[in-house]
Amino acid sequence: MKTALQKSPIPATQAFIARRLDDPYFDPNWHFHPEYQLFVVLEGTGTRFVGDSIERFRPGDLVFTGPNLPHLWRSDQEYFVGNSNLRARGVVIYFHDNFLGSALLEKNEAFSLRQLMTKATKGLKILGETSRRIRQMMNGILGLQDFESVIKLMEILHLLSQSTEYDLLSSDGYSNTLKRSDTDRMNRVHDHIMAHFQQRIKLEEVAALAYMTPSSFSRYFKSHTNKTFSQFLSEIRIGHASKLLIEKEMSVAEACFKSGFYTLSNFNRQFKSIHGLSPTEYKQAYLQL
DNA sequence: ATCCTATGTTGGACGGTGCC
DNA sequence: GGCACCGTCCAACATAGGAT
C-alpha cells in the first residue's frame, strides 16, 4: 500500500502539501524523506518508530519530524486482518526547509523557527495545550486555499516554535545511517518482528531475513537503530504489554504472557527498566489520571 | 526479590570480495 | 589503493527462565 505517508510528492508549483489519511492501516513501511512532516493521528492505535524512539501511538498523537529522519506509524496487528472494520485516520503536512525561502529563514525574526527545525531532526512529540491547538489548526488548513493556507502553516510553525510543550523523540546519540537500499531489508525485519513478537523470536531467524549471519546482523542492526536486537524487541513487547494493561485492563500475568514473555520475573525486570515503574505501579498510576 | 546458570547476543579482530 | 560491506572466529557479556 502506498499512501501519502510514504511518499511526499510536493508539486513544484506548491509550497506544501496537507492531506487527510483514511485507510485500513497506516503505511507499514519504515522510510525517510527530505521533507519536514507534521502528522496527527485522528483514529487508530499502534507503535510509532521515529529514529531510535519506540512508543505507542493513539488518537491525538502529534509528531513533527525533520528531513531524512526514518519513521513508521505501525498500526496494531488487528488492523491488518482482512475483514477488519478498523480505520487509521490522520492529517499529514509535508513541506521543504526552503518553504519560506532562505532569504526569510536566515533573518533574526526566524531565529526560533530555525531552532524548531533543528530540534525536528530528532523528532518532536507535541504535548498539552499546544498539541490541542495545532490539531485544530491542522484540521482547519484542509479547508483553506491559496495563500490563506500558507499563512495557516506559518501560524502553526510559529506556535510550535514558541512552545515548550514537547518531548524530543530520538536520543542525542542517534543519527540516520540508513541508505535507501537498506529500507527493504529493514522493512522485512520490522514486519517479521511486529508479526511475531508475541512468540519467541531468535536473532538467527531475523538475520536470515536480512540474508546475514547472526553476528553480522547484530552489528548491522545496532548501527542502524542505535539499539541492540534484544533492546528493540523488548521495547516493542513492553509497549504492547502496557497497552494490554491499560486499554484492556488485563492482569500483569496475562499481559506478560500475551506480549512474548515467558516468565513474570523477566517481564517485571524489563518493564521497570523501560518505564521506571513495575507493571502494577504503572497500571495504578494510569488509573489515577 | 534475589541468585544461578545455560544459552543467546554482542562486538573486536581480521580477512575476503567487489566497486570506484 | 582505498573503501564499504559482510563473513568467521571467539571471548566477554547479557539475558531468560528456573530455583529458592
TrEMBL record:
Molecular function as annotated in GO: DNA-binding transcription factor activity; sequence-specific DNA binding
Domain HTH araC/xylS-type: 187-285
Top-level taxonomic group: Bacteria
PROSITE patterns: HTH_ARAC_FAMILY_1, HTH_ARAC_FAMILY_2
One of the Pfam families matching this protein, by short name: Cupin_2
SUPFAM superfamilies: Homeodomain-like, RmlC-like cupins
UniProt keyword terms in alphabetical order: DNA-binding, Transcription, Transcription regulation
SMART domains for this protein: HTH_ARAC
Family matches, as PANTHER family: ARAC-FAMILY TRANSCRIPTIONAL REGULATOR, TRANSCRIPTIONAL REGULATOR MTLR
Protein name: AraC family transcriptional regulator
Organism for this UniProt entry: Flavilitoribacter nigricans (strain ATCC 23147 / DSM 23189 / NBRC 102662 / NCIMB 1420 / SS-2)
